[in-house]
Amino acid sequence: MTDTSVTGAGVAGTSMTGTSMTGTGVAGTSMTGTRFKVYCSQCREKVELAAEEFRLALGRTKERTFYSFTCPACGAAVRKPAGEKIVAALTGAGVSTIRLLQAVEG
Ligand SMILES: [Zn+2]
Hints:
binds zinc ion, two-stranded antiparallel sheet, mainly beta, 8% helix, single chain
């Protein structure tokens, strides 16, 4: 003899409740203050620099697109190739962009 007890679940009636807009404070996004961590190719030091410390040179080809900065650790002028993501990140942070003109050849 097994006594099976079924527990009836009461279905709650769906009621249209008013939507309350909860105001959330939007954190102020400042255009400055973005910092990038980069490796110095000279002293191998990992340094953190503000966006304004960088220079971005956009060439006609990927091979000619690079970013440069002065290493705060050793003072070397470092130049590195900049991929699409780096270009997007740097320009988004307000890094000074230099468009390289076509070199006069011949
Ligand atoms: Zn360095």
